[in-house]
Amino acid sequence: MKSRMTLLLAFLLTGMLVLNACGGAPAAPEDEFFYVEEAPAATEAPAEAMPEPQQGAPAESESVLKDGSVYETGVENELPVTTHLIIKNADMRLLVEDSDIAISRITQAVGDSGGYIISSRVWNQTHLDGKNYKYATITMGVPVIAFERTLNRLRDLSLEVLDETASGEDVTDQYVDLQSQLINLEATRERIKSFLDQAQTVEEALLINQQLSEIERQIEEIKGRINYLQDRSSFSTITVNLEPKLPDYVPPTPTPTPSPTPTPKEPWKPGETVESAWETLVDAYRVIIDLLIWVLLVVVPIFAPPVLIIWLVVKFVTRKRSKPQ
């Protein structure tokens, strides 16, 4: 009976600690510093909720984050500072002279800043003059300490900044709250482990182990969220859209089609018609008379003698044959 009462009290105490851990710490004002010397969330808990120090305790009982301070991102030494954690993003649309040269310079700028290319897309688009021009979209991640310097380099390599948008998200409150939740959950996990050592039956051990698995799952989720916020605040995202400078297009001037000029109608002149007909008749008679003159003076003298001789020979032969024998 005493063992069951002890187990019941342990579960009640565990539930109170879990609720306290999930509740989180209140958000700190923006004008205050985030220095915490010795994990206050754990020290302010009731004395009976804290596990007794044990010899040879596992290293995982200590939090990855030693306190609730805000750490500077982008540096090697993790020293608590008073700055806020800001997730920065920027979107730029640049007009460039040559897209290939601009892509090469952007890649070099990302490498010099210690960043990396997240994604890139390059495509060609036909202009009104019938030629293809290259466009590109590049998304990069750069260290937060090189964010402004990288933006300045991108502005310098363009002919004109067509559009630029920069934004930031303050995640300091989330970061500090997750730190407090992590410390409380780790303390709860150690307390449950001590209860697991005191379990006398298999059923009690299984119930305590189930609670321990749930606490460890929550710890891993919070650690993953903390790592995500640290990584996102350490590297800023910049998306660059490149547009080439297009030549001025002058549409060809269409050649006008000349319209036919209507021929004006001449008025009716019967007198001129009679005169023209009379001249035509005179010309016709003149041609006929000239032809007759040529026939009489040229054709007849040439062909008349041979024709006459042939006729006489034919006449003579015909008459000779017609005489009786």
Radius of gyration: 56 Å
Spatial strand arrangement across the major sheet:
4-5-7-3-6
Q: Indicate the low-confidence ranges by residue numbers.
A: 23-82
Average pLDDT score: 75
Q: Give the strand content.
A: 15-25%
User: What is the number of beta strands?
Assistant: 7
Distance, first to last CA: 187 Å
What class, by secondary structure content?
Answer: alpha+beta
Helix content: 40-55%
Taken from the alpha-carbon principal axes, the silhouette is rod-shaped
What is the count of helical runs? 7
The biggest sheet amounts to: 5 strands, mixed
SSE arrangement, N to C: HHEEEHEEHEHHEH
Note down, in words, how this protein is organized.
The protein has helices at 2-23, 40-43, 99-113, 147-156, 172-198, 202-234, 270-322, and strands spanning 70-71, 80-81, 86-96, 116-126, 132-143, 160-170, 235-244. Strands 4-5-7-3-6 form a five-stranded mixed beta sheet. With 325 residues, the protein is an alpha+beta fold.
Give a topology summary.
Elements: H1 2-23, H2 40-43, E1 70-71, E2 80-81, E3 86-96, H3 99-113, E4 116-126, E5 132-143, H4 147-156, E6 160-170, H5 172-198, H6 202-234, E7 235-244, H7 270-322
Parallel strand pairs: 3-7
Antiparallel strand pairs: 1-2, 3-6, 4-5, 5-7
Helix pairs in contact: 1-5, 3-4, 5-6
